[in-house]
Amino acid sequence: MLIQQVSIENETTLKDVRIENGKFAAIAEHLTPGDNEQVIDGKGKLLLPPFVDPHVHLDSTLTAGDPEWNQSGTLFDGIRIWSARKQKLSIQDVKERATATLKKQASHGTQFVRSHVDVTDPNLTALQALLEVRDEVKDFIELQLVAFPQEGILSFPNGKELMTKAAEMGVDAIGGIPHFEFNREYSVQSLHFVSDLAEKYNRLIDVHCDEIDDPASRGLETMATLAYETGMHDMVTASHTTALGSYNDAYAYKLFRLLKMSQINMIANPLVNTFLGGRFDTYPKRRGMTRVKELDADGINIAFGEDDIKDPWYPMGDGNMLDPLHLGLHVAQTMGYDQIMNAYHYVTLNGAKAMHVLDHYGIEEGKEANCILMNRGNFYDALNERAEVLYSIHHGKIIVQTKPIEVTTHFE
């Protein structure tokens, strides 16, 4: 396959890209088509590495309104409603919903996904289902699974045993929820348990951390300390960290030093963070998102996820990573022209770093041929106009092809 005349990641010089045996074989200004070689005319359009969603919940996806709608819009009511819904989970139920959402994500150019899976279920039904899904979707999406203790580790009966069982069953990462544990002592102990379990089974770490507008919620300092002292460094990811937006600046300044030393990854989820955040405020009302602009400026890896797609925590979403990106730039106030042009990093490279897939991610000769061709010439235009993904290519094969919408106007 030869993709002709594309702008690779906003480059002004157009390039040709040859794909052979599922890998990027050559990238140059002009490559001659071979006999019977499939040719795609890029027409100067934007070629990007595929979108990455490093934080989503596929076990709960497409359950919004079942058994009830979250009328308060709080995180805690979402947990309550999900606790009731998961009592009737079946493997088929989870697989059907998760696969439908993954196909929707893939249709928008996402090829790498990390899903948290609730393991505060004695039967581990959702985990069994998603382990099957992980294998079944491998031809179009690379899926990672995180053992996520939605109702706590120390605060849920047999929480430690369930987390250990999940690790033995083959999850890719170990999760946690320190801000939902009963008390500060349990919070700290849970993070030590997560770190020890990940080291024992050689797993990544991705914790729901400080997802609350409480400046006293400080699990992040414990996470970063453990990442630094254990040497796990960038194998560790802190998701949400919305409380960081409520910390006083003196403490945040001190914390940033530790975050840099630890080399920890961070993930913000703009759609859900802003929807759930500030629910207990009158006015002024907090935006509900972590300090994206400051983290990025300080060289700390920060990526965006979609988090929830039509479930008890968030009633909307269709798997398009341009949506959390668009809102995230507004909330973080990172909308200079250059910032917008390079904003795709939040939903591509930065997420790939957090997922530890950089060895086979990116448009480089010799790497797996995974890429998307967008229907605009640069990312500023692509984001502004919600450009279609004309082609999504995974392992050298076209998995999605989109015909642009034609609009006919009849203005006088």
Automatic annotation (TrEMBL):
One of its GO terms (molecular function) is cytosine deaminase activity. The keyword Metal-binding applies. It comes from the Bacteria. Residues 38-400 form the Amidohydrolase domain. GO terms for biological process: cytosine catabolic process. CDD domains: Bact_CD. SUPFAM superfamilies: Composite domain of metallo-dependent hydrolases, Metallo-dependent hydrolases. Keywords: Hydrolase, Metal-binding. This is Cytosine deaminase. It comes from Secundilactobacillus paracollinoides.
